[in-house]
């Protein structure tokens, strides 16, 4: 009389380990991208106060300059964001009002030279969407629009909103859909 086998054979255990390895090889990169996206969102959230500054103060070209200068030279600010380990710098261009968010590439986990997003202000007029400085120069009024751009600006382009692509753009796979 043969004894009945109990438990698992070695090959069955090896198959289970192989399946777990394959699943983790797929899940780990996706999770790393998810973490990077969360860090990028934190940087965009920190740029909200700069957006508010431009939106509330820019009634003329001179106002853009004043708002940008105020933002870039705030006491204990100096264009930097000391309370974030993910963002090195948030600056406002004094001619256009374009906000550039410079991320710390080491702490967010991206390559050096691929660490910026831009937020471009525009005015939605009856004849279309115009960059803020051009609208103010022409004396045009309307609702504010913000375009976010990284390595791509296809979302804002498809919506007819002009945007400025940063000098060192983030990979579009890491940014929110609005910034692609």
Describe this protein with a few key phrases.
single chain, 180 residues, alpha+beta, Glycoprotein, Type 4 Pilin, five-stranded antiparallel sheet, 6 helices, elongated
Put the structure in a nutshell.
Helices cover 42% and strands 18% of the residues. The chain has helices at 10-46, 48-57, 61-72, 105-108, 132-138, 154-158; strands at 87-92, 99-103, 116-125, 128-131, 143-149.
Set out the fold topology.
Layout: H1 10-46, H2 48-57, H3 61-72, E1 87-92, E2 99-103, H4 105-108, E3 116-125, E4 128-131, H5 132-138, E5 143-149, H6 154-158
Antiparallel strand pairs: 1-2, 2-3, 3-4, 3-5
Helix pairs in contact: 2-3
Describe the structure.
The chain has one domain (10-179): Glycoprotein, Type 4 Pilin (2-Layer Sandwich), CATH 3.30.700.10. Helices cover 42% and strands 18% of the residues. Helix 2 (48-57) packs antiparallel against helix 3 (61-72). It has 180 residues and is of the alpha+beta class. Strands 1, 2, 3, 4 and 5 form a five-stranded antiparallel beta sheet that branches. Strand 1 (87-92) and strand 2 form a beta hairpin. The longest helix has 37 residues, at 10-46. The chain is elongated. It has helices spanning 10-46, 48-57, 61-72, 105-108, 132-138, 154-158, and strands at residues 87-92, 99-103, 116-125, 128-131, 143-149. The protein contains six helices and five strands. Its main location: membrane. Pfam families: N_methyl, Pilin.
